[in-house]
Amino acid sequence: MKIAVVGSTGLVGQMMLKVLEERDFPVSELLPVASASSVGRTIMFNGRAYPVLSMQEAIDRRPDIALFSAGASVSKEWAQAFADVGCTVIDNSSAWRMTEGIPLIVPEVNGHVLTEKDKIIANPNCSTIQMVVALNPIHRRFGIRRIIVSTYQAVSGTGMKAVKQYKDEANGLQPGAQVYPHPIFANCLPHCDIFLENDYTKEEMKMVYETRKIMQEPDMPVSATAVRVPVISGHSESVNIELTTDADLTGIRTVLAEAPGVKLYDNPGANQYPMPILAEGKDDVWVGRIRRDESRDRCWNLFIVADNLRKGAATNAVQIAEYLIEKKIINAEMSGSLAV
């Protein structure tokens, strides 16, 4: 298949290329796309160098799938132009997530809603993805009445400049660009994205609205607090859920152990619990610290961790593309000649 990666020089774009390689995705022609300042540079993919193209050059080549990770404004401006030439766009930005008629997809949860008519598909927020992968199987078995979540989000979720700020501060250097309003090294900021009129941040409200849409529960009560922490890679979440039916620890662990995309890692006596350092570089959503909330009936606590650049972004986008091919929503000539 002819695959465009829009934003190919960014953190997530680079990870998309890596995941495409690792998963042996059927790429017959790669079209790396980036801003005008990057056009003409080369991108390495499967041992070959590819020139970075402009948006219009990529559109003119009519890709089968375009993986977008270049920001919401770019997606708003260009995604439809790709779709108009028959390309299926999988967009990692916030541009289309809550747009009516645009599917917001985590394949393990709601891939079944995709059809051939869906030419723009939204990739959810990183924090939302890992939470719904873990919670949806519990919801389908026991029913979830309410979700309370506090996140501990890595600086790579903000991009390359944030990682540089963290490293500069860690090395005692004056940051070249102050991405955050306060230092992030040896600090925690209860401030992810901008504050809204209700005093929640945009990131927190993303988790509310996206969870409802993905899990097809428009009235699900969700309350979120999002915190940026001095970790480079891997988002963590402390989640409290209230169930509609009774459950026990064995039942919840069994559901999670059998859930696609979940790695159950829950043995406190052996100091085994999810941590960013374990999830980094992996595609599973790690779940542990499962315990009954003794302050309220039918309530449980969980700790959920995932690599925010992989399952939280790049891997989920590639998995959507794989799902489209597997279910023959997009037809691909699956032959050895397609390997780059």
TrEMBL record:
Keyword DNA-binding carried by entry: no
Keywords on record: Amino-acid biosynthesis, Diaminopimelate biosynthesis, Lysine biosynthesis, Methionine biosynthesis, NADP, Oxidoreductase, Threonine biosynthesis
Family classification: Belongs to the aspartate-semialdehyde dehydrogenase family.
Name used for this protein in its record: Aspartate-semialdehyde dehydrogenase
GO biological process: 'de novo' L-methionine biosynthetic process; diaminopimelate biosynthetic process; isoleucine biosynthetic process; lysine biosynthetic process via diaminopimelate; threonine biosynthetic process
Signal peptide: none
Originating organism: Candidatus Opimibacter skivensis
Pathways per UniProt: Amino-acid biosynthesis; L-lysine biosynthesis via DAP pathway; (S)-tetrahydrodipicolinate from L-aspartate: step 2/4; Amino-acid biosynthesis; L-methionine biosynthesis via de novo pathway; L-homoserine from L-aspartate: step 2/3; Amino-acid biosynthesis; L-threonine biosynthesis; L-threonine from L-aspartate: step 2/5
Subunit structure: Homodimer.
Matches recorded under InterPro entries: Asp_semialdehyde_DH, Asp_semialdehyde_DH_beta, NAD(P)-bd_dom_sf, Semialdehyde_DH_NAD-bd, Semialdhyde_DH_dimer_dom
Gene (UniProt): asd
CDD domains membership: ASADH_C_bac_euk_like (cd18131), VcASADH2_like_N (cd02316)
EC code: 1.2.1.11
